[in-house]
Amino acid sequence: MAGGLIALLDDVAALVKLSAASLDDVAAGASRAGAKAAGVVVDDAAVTPKFVEGVDPKRELPIIQRIAVGSLFNKLVIILPIILLLSQFLPWLLTPLLMVGGTYLCYEGAEKIFEKLGWIAHHEKETPAAEQSTDGKAAEKKVVRSAITTDFVLSCEIMVIALNEVAAESLTSRAVILAVVGVAITVGVYGAVALIVKMDDIGLHMAKKDSPGQQKFGRFLVGAMPKLLALLSVVGTFAMLWVGGHIILVGTDELGFHVLYGFVHHLEVPVAAIAAIGGFLGWLVNTFFSLILGALWGGVVVGVIFGVKALFKGKSTSGRASQARRGEAALGSDPHVVVRTTPAQR
Fold first, then answer.
1. How many C-beta atoms lie closer than 10 Å to residue 34's C-beta?
2. How does the average pLDDT of the chain come out, rounded?
3. What Å distances lie between residue 173 and 74, 77, 124, 176, 181, CA to CA?
4. What is the pLDDT of residue 48?
5. pLDDT tens digit string along 264-310?
6. 17 CB neighbour count, 10 Å cutoff
7. Sign of CA pseudo-dihedral 212, 214, 217, 222
8. Lowest mean pLDDT among 179-188, 257-266, 325-334
9. How does residue 7 score in pLDDT terms, banded at 50, 70 and 90?
10. Does the pLDDT at position 191 exceed 80?
11. Is the separation of the CB atoms in 36 and 101 below 8 Å?
């Protein structure tokens, strides 16, 4: 009896060790996957606060909570099963899909820079909150729907980037790791967003305290919020270019075009051999050239997209002008029609 109990305890101990090892693997995988998705995460944190600009302060946190729930639904219910099936049955699609996501990141980053430099017109749509609908519930629903739609694109990129880091794991491990990453990133992003959105309220509350120190810190929070949002926007832009460029760099190498990756790797290896700081310097070189590649790649995509838009717009304008001329000619040829002109036309 004692021997059987000891054997059972040994089995339990073995299972505990196995579970601990599995949890370690999951934690390590989630850490790797989450780190590579950092660029999208920073941009997500910078974009989301705009969706609650202009709404009733009492509704800010409930709206953010609804957006966070929608983001979790995007990641865990829609995106996760699809990319797991692709990774299991069509793994060769992962690199092209990842490069599509990387191209989108490069495009978004380059577009923001071009807009900032005044090279292209700023066309960002107003947030639904700014429309100030008379129906509060309808306006709030519109805000949430718009934010969740934007989040879906960012969540796709996050999950595909994360999957690429753990593609060699078993299907079960991939599912668990991606679920952990999805939940952790959603909680982290929207927790930070809630804190940022409420930063001015917290600052105003502290500014009313009796303590001069609290008053000073409260005023600092109120003044720091716009600067923090601006900083997040800048960091998010460069992070998108870096992450997107790195995806393109690695993706082209995996698809057989080795020139770009080989060039960067050739520059990275010598500095990586430097004692103590070599690892950081190697990462810095890779990040710098990934950023440059992302900006160039995104710039080309922006140029193509805006060129095509301009071409179609020109054709549309030309077509309308031609149609108007034909109409005027038809009216002018009819003796029963009197064409009235304005003084300016006369």
1. 21
2. 77
3. 20, 17, 39, 5, 12
4. 62
5. 999 998 998 898 888 889 989 998 999 999 999 999 999 999 889 88
6. 10
7. negative
8. 325-334
9. low
10. yes
11. no
**Joined tokens for residue 43:** 């941009």
Distance CA 207, CA 218 (A): 5
Number of Cβ atoms within 10 Å of the Cβ of 171? 11
Tell me the per-residue pLDDT of 104-113, one tens digit each, with 9 for 90 and over. Answer: 889 988 998 9
Non-local CB neighbours of 302 within 8 Å, separated by 6+ positions: 107, 110, 111, 114, 120
Alpha helices, DSSP H only, in 168-207? 171-197, 199-207
Contacts 24+ apart (CB under 8 A), 20-26: 22/173, 25/169, 25/173, 26/173, 26/176, 26/177, 26/180
Chain segment 298-315, per-residue pLDDT in tens: 999 999 998 898 888 877
Determine contact, residues 211/61, Cβ cutoff 8 Å.
Answer: no
As given in the structure block, the two tokens for residue 333 are 């040829």
Tokens found for residue 201: 């309220």
Q: Taking a C-beta distance cutoff of 8 angstroms, is the pair 71, 194 a contact?
A: no
- Residue 150's contacts (CB-CB under 8 Å, 6 or more residues apart) are 47, 51
Torsion of CA 212, 216, 222, 227, to 10 degrees: -170
pTM: predicted TM-score of the whole model, two decimal places: 0.70
3-state helix, strand, coil in the chain (%, to 5): 85, 0, 15
As a whole number of angstroms, the distance between CA 249 and CA 256 comes to 11
